[in-house]
Write a structure and sequence with these properties.
Layout: E1 3-8, H1 18-31, E2 36-44, H2 46-57, E3 65-69, E4 77-84, H3 85-94, H4 99-114, H5 122-141
Parallel strand pairs: 1-2, 2-4
Antiparallel strand pairs: 3-4
């Protein structure tokens, strides 16, 4: 059975509707026709994620999310998704949206990467944003 977990590194995040959100994330994989074994979201600080970005990806900049697929190609997805709570707060303020909406967007963004969506080229970014918005609307409707 697919498992979606939420953990804390050096930041604690109080997520409302945790069970509903876990089920919804698992449903994204079903909708995108991607088998899911386990996805663990780890909430952390900017500094924690910056170290990971430097150590594992050789990038020297802050980011809101890093996704690590741990499974072999063709196997059900096993992954860890690290999210900087600090960066999400700043992004929400800069984008004039709520922290909750931005956190959901980033959570869905990590899942979409694992379903094969990319965000390097302009066309990929556009498609990624469309899928994020699609799932944000679906999640809000499911209340």
């Amino acid at each position: 059975m697919a498992a979606v977990e939420f953990r804390s590194a050096d930041r604690t995040l109080r997520l409302q509707e945790r069970s509903k959100l876990k089920a919804f994330v698992a449903s994204i994989f079903k909708k995108e026709k991607q088998a899911l074994a386990n996805i663990t979201y780890i909430f952390c600080s900017d500094d924690f994620l910056l170290r990971m970005n430097r150590d594992f990806l050789k990038h020297d900049y802050y980011t809101d999310v890093i996704t690590f697929g741990l499974s072999e190609k063709g196997e059900p997805v096993e992954a860890e998704v690290y999210i900087s709570v600090d960066r999400v707060k700043d992004n929400a303020s800069n984008l004039e949206t709520t922290f909750k909406a931005e956190m959901l967007r980033v959570i869905f963004h990590g899942a979409l990467h694992l379903c094969g969506y990319k965000d390097k080229r302009k066309s990929e970014i556009t498609l990624m944003r469309e899928r994020e918005e699609h799932y944000l609307r679906l999640f809000e409707k499911s209340k």
